[in-house]
Automatic annotation (TrEMBL):
Name of one Pfam family that matches: Yip1
Transport keyword on record: no
UniProt keywords, alphabetically: Membrane, Transmembrane, Transmembrane helix
Location of the Yip1 domain: 61-213
InterPro entries linked to this entry: Yip1/4-like, Yip1_dom
Coiled-coil features, chain-numbered ranges: none
Record-given protein name: Protein YIPF
Entry's transmembrane regions: 69-89, 101-123, 135-158, 164-187, 199-222
Length: 231
């Protein structure tokens, strides 16, 4: 007669016992946090991405993964507003000049977003693994050096008008190169080496166009004031 080994019976789990599926780990949620806490977290994330642009993009994978459009929108809006106010201050406050300043705001704003979208589509068509919003985020943050150059040139022009040329030209050239190098640091891991030259050209053209617009606004104010004083 064969012997059978008896095993201890396993404890049965009742269907109504919730302790068998409950986890002690807390679940993170931001739905009930204060608004100021949410804003502060977003501000810190924007500052972190700007820091990566300033130091030529360390830890690019983390920045690309946590993409957002708040930073690019803020940089675009302040840059457009700065150049339009610059025109308003340098050329006067009559109705015609106010209309001209609104044109400057619209031109910079449209060029910013249109150029970012074109670069993003070009990167995608070249086989880049970045999504279009991620590419727009990268390009938008890399405009920050041009924004710094616009502030520097505007302050120099207000202090002394000829500085718009003697300071503005070298500063904007340096900031243009700075923006291009920052964007290359982000995109070099997203596009194959053989296709990178095709992605570089529209990037350089975009940042050079924004730098040129900044210079034109400042130099226009200088030349208009010079012509007024001679008259």
């Amino acid at each position: 007669m064969s012997e059978f080994q008896e095993y201890p019976s396993q404890p049965s789990v009742q269907s109504g016992d919730s302790t068998s599926v409950k986890s002690d780990e807390p679940v993170e949620t931001t739905l009930d946090e204060p608004v100021l806490t949410t804003l502060w977290r977003e501000i810190k994330q924007v500052g972190t991405k700007l820091f990566h642009v300033v130091v030529f993009c360390t830890k690019t994978e983390k920045v690309i993964k946590d993409w957002d459009l708040w930073g690019p929108m803020l940089v675009c809006y302040i840059l457009s507003l700065l150049l339009s106010i610059n025109i308003m201050i340098r050329k006067g406050n009559n109705g015609k000049d106010d209309q001209y300043s609104s044109y400057i705001f619209s031109i910079v704003f449209i060029c910013f977003w249109l150029g970012s979208i074109v670069i993003s589509l070009n990167t995608k068509f070249l086989g880049g693994h970045l999504t279009i919003p991620q590419s727009i985020c990268i390009v938008g943050y890399c405009v920050f050096p041009i924004f710094v150059g616009a502030i520097t040139t505007t302050i120099a022009t207000i202090c002394w008008s000829p500085l718009s040329i003697y300071v503005g030209v070298p500063v904007m050239i340096l900031c243009d190169i700075w923006s291009c190098m920052a964007s290359f640091g982000f995109l070099q891991s997203a596009i194959k080496l053989t296709r990178r030259p095709l992605a570089v050209f529209p990037i350089v053209l975009f940042f050079t166009m924004l730098s040129w617009l900044t210079l034109v606004v400042n130099i226009t104010g200088f030349t208009s004031n010079k012509a007024t004083s001679e008259a």
